[in-house]
Amino acid sequence: MNGLTKICLRKINGFTRTAPRLPGKMKQHLQAYRRDDEGAMLILTLYFFIIFLFMAGLGLAVMRHEMNRAKLSVTTDAAVLAAAGMPAGSTVAEIKAVVEDYFTKNDLINNLNAIDTDGIGVDDIVTSLNSTEVTASASMTMPTTLLRLVGVDTLIANTGGTAKIATPKLEVSLVLDVSGSMSGSKLSSLKVAAKEFVTTILDSGPPGDISISLIPFSMGVTPSDTIFTALNIDQTHNYSTCIAFLGNEFSNTAIDPAIPYRQQIYTLMQNSNSIPFNDANQFWRDCYTDAYMKVLPYSMSETALHNKIDSLVARGNTSGHLGIKWGTAMLDPSFQSVAAALKGTGEMNSALGNVPSNWGEPESLKIVVMMGDGANTTTYYFNDPNQLMNESVVETHVLPDFRGPGSDLYRISRVSLSDRYYVKDPNESDPTEDQFFDVSNGNWITGVEFAALPTTLAGYDLSDPLNGTPMSWELAWGLITPQRYSNIIGDFSAWNDYVGQERITGSMKNTRMRSQCTAAKNRGIVIYTIGFQVPAGGTAETELKNCAQSVANYFPADTTNISAAFSSIASNVQNLRLTQ
Predict the structure, then answer these.
(1) Chain mean pLDDT for the chain
(2) pLDDT of residue 16
(3) Alpha-carbon distances of 510 from 154, 240, 318, 326, rounded to whole Å
(4) Which one of 42, 353, 477, 558 is at 20 to 30 Å from 417 when CA atoms are compared?
(5) Residue 85: inside a domain
(6) Residue 362: cis peptide before it, omega within 30 degrees of 0
(7) What distance, in Å, lies between the first and last C-alpha atoms of the chain?
(8) Pairing of the two strands 131-143 and 125-127
(9) Is 139 helix (H, G, I), strand (E, B) or coil?
């Protein structure tokens, strides 16, 4: 072993701390190699290259994933929205086909997940009378390229969407003034405009989705016989169906079947002696019994509503407070039992379902449209000193009144012959004097002669237990007017009581109308009003504006633009319905 070899081995094995001097050129090469760092950067460069390659692969994969996910999402959203917007009455199969068609046209049908329509549990397509809810989901599996180097072979894009389009059920009360001042061209123009309004509203939704109640008012409002029977009325006569309301009953929207009400006395306020006995079917009666004046409830028939409007006749004074009372009552849920009774008689189509809908029901919109052509005027009633109008008070007649039993009119029924009627003079106590007036022939007879009628009057019906007994005042006033009665006995106490005691003035009606409109608006009922040829700034316009939801919901009109006013309201109602 030579000396150089020994020196190297000693250095390698660590046995020496010094090294012998190397030849000059070798020494230079070793020192240059020691200072060279290019080899170290190669490893770092390779490391960063791998990182950049992975990031590029990740970015490319994410970009492809997002593009496909966005396409899936847009297709899903468009599909469910279009399907939910299918016309009412579309079948589940038709709605499902719309969803599938959207995916097919976008070459994504294979990515659409199964749509559950088996009727078990919660389906993906749910339809009702006025709403459709559609749910769909889709997924896509995408292979990766560079990400496979780190073990990610695929990426999955998932999307889903639900669309629900619900058009609120629309319940409308059309409250129309048909008082005497509406006669002539005004009523003709109203009929055209009101029929156009009905058609527009009914055409704005599918059958069964919209109901319109028509409430004519003048001196009062006349409910149909079925409505009257379905309510809790203390019936005292069978002449009419009008109901009398206390002042505090205008602070809520209901005419509640669970609450007892008093029937309004039926008579005339006219002071003419020309009014025949037993003929209260005159202009100034306090309740109109004619078919044209009766409420048409919850109709979805254009024909029935048009026929009703065409039949309207202008008569009587104005009671807007009663018009709006009945208009809101027809929308109050307490009338559901009344609606059930109407369905039972066939007066209401059962397809309307739960009408009136409950307060706050999200798919329901309640509207009152009230047209008036003048200020409220006075209505007359008999005094009520014993509070008979208040059904919570036990009936007594401690104080003199013209209500209840014991009138001065007697009806004598006869076999196979017409009835005879006699008015007793309450101021004549001597039966030997003229005490009973025979309204059939205009003669007075004594009390003795009246007592002998069972044997002297031809055909006297001995089997009738009511013969010879007085009728109730409620029955009497439907046959004889207060004026005619007062003229017969020469005492005008009854007439003065009727026209001067319990009358409700226009001012009182305005107060009640304001309370009723406020109660309706507080319940969420939307009110539109029309002032038909009413003086600008006058009482009628002021009250109609106050009743409306806002000043913008009040429409002044005349015979030239009444149709435009109703058309504007119909358009407002349609827009409001779509935004609910």
Answers:
(1) 86
(2) 43
(3) 76, 25, 11, 15
(4) 477
(5) yes
(6) no
(7) 107
(8) antiparallel
(9) strand
Do the bridges between strand 443-446 and strand 526-532 make them parallel or antiparallel, or are there none, so unpaired?
unpaired
H or E element in which residue 424 lies: strand 417-424
Q: Is 273 exposed, middle or buried (0-12, 13-18, 19+ CB in 10 A)?
A: exposed
Residue 488 lies in a domain: no
| One-character DSSP codes across 303-347 | HHHHHHHHH----S---HHHHHHHHHHTTSGGGHHHHHHHHHHTS
Residues 311, 195 share a domain: yes
- How many CA atoms, within 13 angstroms, populate the side-chain half-sphere of residue 299? 20
Residue 46 vs residue 102, higher pLDDT:
102
Whether 319 and 215 map to the same domain: the answer is yes
Enter the tokens of residue 568.
């504007």
Q: Cα(2)–Cα(422) distance, rounded to whole angstroms? A: 168
pLDDT digits (tens, 9 = 90+) for 159-178: 888 887 766 789 999 999 99
Total domains, the chain = 2
Classify 37 as helix, strand or coil. Answer: coil
Are 126 and 77 members of one domain?
yes
DSSP 192-209: HHHHHHHHHHHHTS-TTS
Domain membership flag for residue 365: yes
Indicate whether this model's pTM tops 0.90. Answer: no
Residues 427-452: tens digit of each pLDDT: 999 999 999 999 988 999 999 999 99
pLDDT digits (tens, 9 = 90+) for 47-57: 666 666 556 55
How many CB atoms lie under 10 A from the CB of residue 578?
10
Residue type, 1: M
**DSSP letter at 145?**
S
421 forms beta bridges with: 411
**Single-letter amino acid code for the residue at 545:** K
Give the span between the Cα atoms of 286 and 242, in whole angstroms.
9
Q: Are residues 147 and 205 in the same domain?
A: no
Same domain assignment for residues 214 and 331:
yes
The identity of residue 410, as a single letter, is Y
Residue 552 CA to residue 528 CA, distance in Å, equals 9
Interatomic CA distance for residues 398 and 392, integer angstroms: 17
- Domain harbouring 516, CATH code: 3.40.50.410
Distance CA 516, CA 321 (A): 7
Element spanning 414, H or E: strand 409-414
- Per-residue pLDDT tens digits for 294-320: 999 999 999 999 999 999 999 989 999
Q: Looking at the structure, do residues 184 and 89 belong to the same domain, yes or no?
A: no
Of 166, 195, 210, the last residue of a domain is 166
φ, ψ dihedrals at 179, nearest 5°: -70, 170
User: In whole angstroms, what separates CA 123 from the centre of its chain?
Assistant: 30
Distances (CA, A) of 430 to 445, 448, 450, 518: 12, 9, 12, 57
- Look up residue 12 and give its two tokens: 């390698």
Whole-angstrom distance, CA of residue 375 vs CA of residue 437: 41
Structural domain of 108 = 61-166
309, 194 contact by CB (below 8 A) = yes
Single-letter amino acid code for the residue at 255: I
292 and 143 within one domain: no
Nearest-CA neighbor of 556 among 536, 524, 531?
Answer: 531
111 in a structural domain: yes
Cβ neighbours for 502, distance < 8 A, ≥ 6 positions apart: 380, 381, 382, 383, 384
* φ, ψ dihedrals at 142, nearest 5°: -115, 130
The arithmetic mean of pLDDT across residues 214-223, rounded, is 96
Q: Which of 151, 124, 148, 127 has the alpha carbon at shortest distance from 138? A: 124
